[in-house]
Write a structure and sequence with these properties.
The protein is α/β, with parallel strands linked by helices. It is built from 16 helices and 23 strands. Strand 5 and strand 6 form a beta hairpin.
């Protein structure tokens, strides 16, 4: 799959599912409402998709509740759920080209990133949680003679998952896989910009053997379908990845309804600290570019603040300028493209606003900063570097969610750590040093859910992902993810 013409031909043949999926079948909105999904790389209409409203959400919740209470999934033997989820993982890989295209067409990412990273990553997540099911044990409490107290993990019930548009299939897998593995029924709401891979996933889940009603997908706008999920009194937990502001809305919705558990993974402004004792500055520069330009910078944990020790600042910026030249945007269906289009015209305009404001504030643009037109769409933005960015500038304080890097010099270790931690976000951080003592010391002082040492944005299904402060709380991935989708139940036996 290395040929542009092949991907274009497949794109022209691609089936786009335009209706929601409830109780194992297609579901059009009761009021007939739809919304437009646009290909940001061409500005062409892809489809008009079902816009679920309150009545549709009510139906999805009733179906999910019935499927949970009746028990075909929740009371299934763990090894049987494992076999079904493993089949789903295999089906995801079997439809690799199709799923990669669905995400590339809807949100503008390079199709080869979706093909080589996102789709295999989603399949791995389902397989990993499937394999965990028959290896989890409950506990017996040390209550003493005459009693037996067991502590078991039980599914919560009905889980709503609301996921963003930047990694549509991956983010769905991160939440749906552990929630299903734990025995829950799930209602997934994909972002309105990128609904297609979630809908196809629902079809594949049914084919794999997930019973009807256990996995449902509701499409629609956040202020309608998302709000209805947040306020619904019969949803037991809601897991969300997206902006901090919307995360706060979901907290309010829970308080206004049934105090459902809400698990948030929100914004980030991750610092990347490069110390002068880093011996491979070329690798550090290459990774720094990857950390901000991968996926067009539309990554919550993107290393968007680069803090460089002053003695190597100028040399490092020169290296970084050279690396940035290799991240020019192009047609997302061209396998040679490392960056694609921003998700839509609104996001492109938002990023350009940050670029303009940074120059007004006194930052120095040393690379990129221009909006490009490709295939008739001007939703493409060059990789952009700013130096002389002070910690109080908007470019340092706010999440851009685009290919724009803020570079700031620091004088010593304390100065670097102070700037890194002086932020409302605490999702991720990276540091580069060949001094083992410094690496341990600084990693311990950085306030972040994940600290990557001599790399950037380290990630694996076996380790938890999430942060603190206004980046949210709770963790995706790893066995710790089960904490979100289960509750502890104590059963006390008084023996006689």
């Amino acid at each position: 799959m290395t040929d542009l013409n092949t991907w274009q031909r497949l794109a022209g043949q691609q089936r786009l599912i335009d209706v929601a999926w409830i109780d194992g079948r297609a579901h059009a909105a009761q009021d007939g409402a739809t919304f437009a999904v646009i290909n940001p790389a061409t500005n062409a209409l892809l489809a008009r998709v079902t816009a679920c409203a309150d009545a549709d959400i009510d139906k999805a919740v009733r179906v999910a509740r019935h499927s949970f209470d009746s028990g075909p999934w929740a009371r299934m033997l763990p090894r049987e759920r494992k076999a079904i989820l493993l089949r789903l993982s295999e089906l995801i890989l079997a439809h690799r080209e199709e799923l990669a295209l669905l995400d590339s067409l809807s949100m503008g990412k390079p199709v080869m990133d979706a093909y080589t990273l996102d789709v295999p990553g989603a399949a791995q997540v389902f397989a990993w949680y499937a394999e965990s099911l028959d290896k989890l044990y409950d506990q017996v409490a040390p209550t003493g003679p005459g009693t037996l107290a067991t502590i078991t993990r039980v599914p919560l019930g009905v889980i709503a998952a609301v996921v963003p548009w930047n990694f549509p299939l991956d983010m769905a897998a991160w939440k749906v896989a552990p929630a299903l593995a734990a025995g829950n029924s799930v209602i997934l709401k994909p972002a309105e910009q990128s609904p297609f891979s979630a809908l196809r996933l629902a079809e594949l889940a049914l084919e794999a053997g997930v019973p009807p009603g256990v996995f449902n997908v509701v499409t629609g706008l956040g202020e309608q379908a998302g709000r209805a999920l947040g306020l619904h009194p019969d949803i037991d937990a809601l897991a969300f990845t997206g902006s901090t502001q919307v995360g706060k809305y979901f907290m309010q919705y829970a308080a206004q309804s049934n105090l459902k558990q809400v698990w948030l993974e929100c914004g980030g402004k991750s610092p990347n600290l490069v110390f002068a004792d880093c011996q491979d500055l070329d690798l550090a520069a290459e990774k720094a570019a990857f950390g901000i330009f991968f996926n067009q910078g539309e990554v919550c944990s993107a290393n968007s603040r680069l803090l460089v020790e002053r003695s190597i600042h100028d040399e490092f910026v020169e290296r970084l300028q050279e690396k940035a030249r290799h991240w020019q945007p192009g047609d997302p269906l061209d396998p040679a493209s490392r960056m694609g289009a921003m998700v839509d015209a609104r996001q492109a305009a938002r990023v350009m606003d940050y670029i303009g404001q940074a120059s007004t504030d006194g930052a120095r643009r040393v690379a990129g900063g221009e909006r490009l037109t490709i295939n008739g769409s001007n939703n493409f933005i060059q990789p952009t570097l700013f130096t002389q960015v002070s910690p109080d500038m908007r470019l340092s304080r706010e999440e851009v969610f685009g290919p724009v890097l803020a570079i700031t010099a620091f004088d010593d270790e304390d100065h670097a750590v102070r700037m890194a931690n002086d932020h409302i976000y605490a999702l991720a951080a990276s540091l580069w040093s060949d001094d083992l003592n410094r690496a341990h010391r600084v990693a311990a002082r950085l306030n972040a859910g994940t600290v990557s040492v001599n790399t950037v944005d380290a990630l694996d299904v076996s380790v938890p992902f999430g942060g603190g402060k206004q980046s949210g709380f709770g963790r995706d991935l790893s066995l710790h993810s089960f904490d979100k989708y289960t509750q502890l139940k104590t059963t006390w036996f008084q023996l006689r």
